[in-house]
Amino acid sequence: MTTPPPATDLSADEARRIVLRAQGFLGTPDRRAGVRGVLRHLGAVQLDTISVLARSHELIPYARLGAVGRKKVENAYWTDRHAFEYWSHAACILPIEEWPHFAFRRRAYRSRPHWNHQLPDGTYDQVIKQLRTEGPLTATELGGAKKTSEWWDWSGTKVAVERALMYGEVVCVERRGWKRVYDLAERAVPADLLHDELDDTECLRRLVRLAGQSLGVGTRADIADYHRLKGEQVDAVIADSGLVPVTVEGWGKPAWADPAALETPPRGRHRTTLLSPFDSLIWERARTERIFGFTHRLEAYVPKPKRVYGYFAMPVLAGGRLVGRVDPAREGSTLVARQVTLDGPKAVPAVAQALVEAATWVDCTDIRVERVDAPDLREPLAKEVTGALTTALR
Known about the structure:
Elements: E1 8-10, H1 12-22, H2 34-42, E2 45-46, H3 56-65, H4 70-78, E3 83-87, E4 91-95, H5 103-110, H6 123-134, H7 139-142, H8 156-167, E5 170-176, E6 179-184, H9 185-188, H10 191-194, H11 200-215, E7 217-219, H12 220-226, H13 231-237, E8 244-248, E9 255-257, H14 259-263, E10 273-274, H15 285-292, E11 314-318, E12 321-331, E13 334-342, H16 348-361, E14 366-372, H17 378-392
Parallel strand pairs: 1-8, 13-14
Antiparallel strand pairs: 2-4, 3-4, 5-6, 7-9, 8-9, 10-11, 11-12, 12-13
Helix pairs in contact: 2-3, 2-4, 6-8, 11-12, 11-13, 12-13, 16-17
């Protein structure tokens, strides 16, 4: 085992800026690399069913690159076998070159003794045969996704193809109307990447290193959470991962950093943008509070009377800080800010800028501000929004 170098001391502000640069929010993004560059830079882009402004996997590159065409985003992910969908932090789009490094998870699924859904005899082989004969298909095209209207009541075909996905015999090669499109791994994955030749230690070492690079700096728990590894899995490989130990002011726990992130101080332009609650910058609540002093939770699954910030409250990033939240909705060509939280009057211009950029990206020509947590700031925000939108639409 490699002996790690002495720990480097970082201030809380230095760590925050390292994180922002690592996540693509500080400095000039490589626009030539585009959406695919963002995916490879982050290592994973989370998928989710909720669509308010757009789906989360569209919001991730938008937050870093600005108004990238939504069709362009989809094409960047799915054409020419550049990506695949698998279980990472959650259901995520992953760069295709990382296929070999999830072999440890595919092996774990294959040896799993218990499943929540029963698999009818012969169904698995039938699904594989049908995909081999007919090419890429959705679960519906394979014979039906559900037995009843209940979302959880999967058909035998759906159980089979999802299990084949977990095993790595089948790959999700795109989303079509939010339905997974399945194909055989032997066709969807380039031959030089297909076979599960890496052992668990090699896989884990790579994913720990990738998590550290994508986070910039993180605790053991942060690094484990990125690809949903176990703490003991991280412990087993982190000394040989290429990451270096650091001490961060106020964190209270040991941390590790990407050595490349420590070579030069983070400088450059800060992005001002709305963030998806599923953005990897703010995936983990404790980390978000530790770095930004900002408490956030997704309330889509909280009963409406108990929501504090709204159904899909999106944090607002500006100047490297989280300065507010917006719970958006769309009504035709109007972007509605149903509920806005502001970190004081100084946040008004940034929140207005973020709203206007988001509105123009999704082809809205009007913005309506409804509730603001500080009522005296509603009128200044609405006025700032109107002025910025008028300028943007000229």
